[in-house]
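Re: the request from the purification team.
They wanted to know what the chain is likely to look like in 3D before they choose a buffer screen. I agreed to run a prediction and write the result into the notebook, where they can find it.
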Amino acid sequence: MEFGVLGPVELRIRGEIADAGHARQQCVLAVLLLNLGRVVPTGELIDRVWGEDPPASVRNVLYTYIGRLRTVIAASGDPEVTLARRQGAYLLQARPDQLDLSRFRRLVTEAVSGSDENRTAALRAALALWRGPALAGLSSPWLDSMRQTLELERLAATLDLNDIALRQGEHGTLVSELAVQAAAHPSDERLIGQLMLAQYRCGRQAEALATYQSARQMLADTLGADPGAGLRDIHQSILTADPSLELPRHPGSASMPAESAPTASGPPAEPSQQEAAGRTREGGKTPRSLGSRAVRAAVAAAALAVAASAALLINSVSGSAHAPSPAAQGVSPASGPTSTVNWQCGPWARAKVHHGSLIDQRLQACIASDHNHLDLEGFLLGSVDAWKERIILVLRHPGQPAYKKLISPLCTASTCIYQTTVGNPGPGSWQVLPQWSSDGGYQSTGKTSPPVTYQPPVSRL
């Protein structure tokens, strides 16, 4: 018998998924699993499952759930798994390796020491145990707090793996994924430092400096704090081209792989402080997501790597309502030099599904008017696997029918980018709205982008 909490709560018997019951019963199982081998008093179990609003007959309900779980455990025939009552408390016992969280923590501990090769293997094996956000689909104040704690453990293991990869000269292949990670965790200074180092080693010094300025502005706006000493030191070292940032060369080793030359279009110009901050203000509030041009450009580069054969250039979108896209500095393989485009981006929205419950995704839509068409882009951050094909972008105009299109995205592990073009939609003011499929239909985020005005080109005889 095996149990899983690193994703949806899962119970397997001889390799087959068994029925763990509905969501509240799964919450009971989750609390017991997170306290595997420890006695959980009944009152504590009730509080962790139902919070401050338990039903009137909560103890009877709990007894029913415990009875059902015992039936499933008994059917497994595994003598090492037991669920017993102990003087007003419950105790779930199993071998530690029967729970994915225990295996994850063991592998992370093994990765503390040893060769880089062995540490990399242990960390990759640990991260491969994750099937999505921890405790996905379950919610209570205590479980939500535990989910955050477990996700931090996952992030720490990811950052340890990043450090090894950077030390081994894998910055060229890592930089795009680092940008995706930084967009999802914009206040993690260790991660921002890793992204800056990878960008610098790829010959993108200006982009590394822009990443720092965006992070510094975000920390000031949201936390009222400056970057820590470690991140400031990396910034100063990049400014002075400190040789310590270069890869160490070991005697007798082959030359380290490096992406030392700038990209074909050259490094992006260093943005102004406001552009680097990449912020969109709503009533004076600043989004907590890192909307820097550098990060968004690298996120787009990650998607481009996935779809290089399609010869599409996915350009970055500034979080500022009127900032020019760095597309103006690039060259599209399909269409040649691009013109300056003013992107209008709506605020990030949390997805709500199944009677209003929140899921671990964030969604944003942007729109731009460019010559003979409108450009639409959407961004999905979070556990994208189950959701990436369920997003549509809706183009709205007060006097025109709504234009809806299901778009196949370009995705990395935790980010999807949706891009489409609408040719000659009609004159007037247009907005784009992201929606997702749920409960048999598409639900609106209510987070429409600012409008753009489309004026059809004047024909010349």
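For the purification team: Confidence is low (pLDDT under 50) at residues 250-340.
Please add any questions underneath this entry.
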